[in-house]
Amino acid sequence: MRAVKAASGKKNARAKLFRIKVISMGDAGCGKSCLIKRYCEEKFISKYIPTIGVDYGVKPNKYNDYEVRVNLWDLAGGPDYAEVRNEFYKEAQGCVLVYDVTNRASFESLEGWLEESRKYGAENMVIFVAAAKTDQPVRKVFEKEGREWAQSKGFPFYEVSASSGAGVKALFTSLFARILATVPGIPEELTALAVQQANMARGEEA
After folding, report:
1. Which family is annotated (predicted)?
2. Is 192 inside a domain boundary?
3. What is the CATH number for 88?
4. Which of 36, 74, 98, 108 has the fewest beta carbons under 10 Å from its own?
5. How far, in Å, CA of 167 to CA of 68, rounded?
6. How far apart are CA 30 and CA 77, in angstroms?
């Protein structure tokens, strides 16, 4: 009898574990890796270290008895890595589309990133736009312009700073909640818990 209970317990544990795939997109140097590191490790690396090809990490997120393991694929933004990153668009369920508010070219290239992702198999993924490096004193792209561009595409918009951490938790928790709401088979209770966590993160930023 004990063996049967143990097996049942393992089955229930597996049933409460879910995985989602999230990618980052944006020009080289716009701050994608720093945002991910700030969220996952709660620290900031000031020295710029370009991503070579693709970087990968797993971030476990607990929602009461549920665990969501987020597979984060940080795609290098340089043109030399196009053939490498193009293999990772397929089956992505969510995306952080990043530009640097101090670099107008990174903002103007956002449309190109959308085109590339669609060309190489990204379909129906949830996209959040992140305006990075908002702690910097000199801006080339102001909030109104970035927000209006995102809204024209139907994408949620967040201004964030990996240096200070401002907006980062709210960005990622809101993205995960939106993804879970779109994935078949996710329990309603889990989605509700994820939304609650995202609302709390946004409230802390207010």
Report:
1. Belongs to the small GTPase superfamily. Rab family.
2. yes
3. 3.40.50.300
4. 108
5. 21
6. 9
Q: Is residue 3, in this structure, part of any structural domain at all?
A: no
Residue 69 located in a structural domain = yes
Interatomic CA distance for residues 157 and 150, integer angstroms: 6
The pTM assigned to this predicted structure is 0.89
Round to whole Å and give the CA distance between 85 and 78: 10
- Of 120, 129, 137, the C-alpha closest to 156 is 129
Three-state DSSP state, 22: strand
Domain count, the chain: 1
Domain range for residue 42? 17-205
DSSP structural state of residue 79: G
Write out the chain's pLDDT in tens, 206 residues: 333 333 434 445 555 999 999 999 999 999 999 999 999 888 887 655 556 557 888 899 999 999 999 999 999 888 888 888 898 999 999 999 999 999 999 999 999 999 999 999 998 999 999 999 999 999 999 999 999 999 999 999 999 999 999 999 999 999 999 999 999 999 999 999 999 999 999 988 76
CB 56 within 8 Å of CB 72: yes
Alpha-carbon span 153 to 159, nearest angstrom: 17
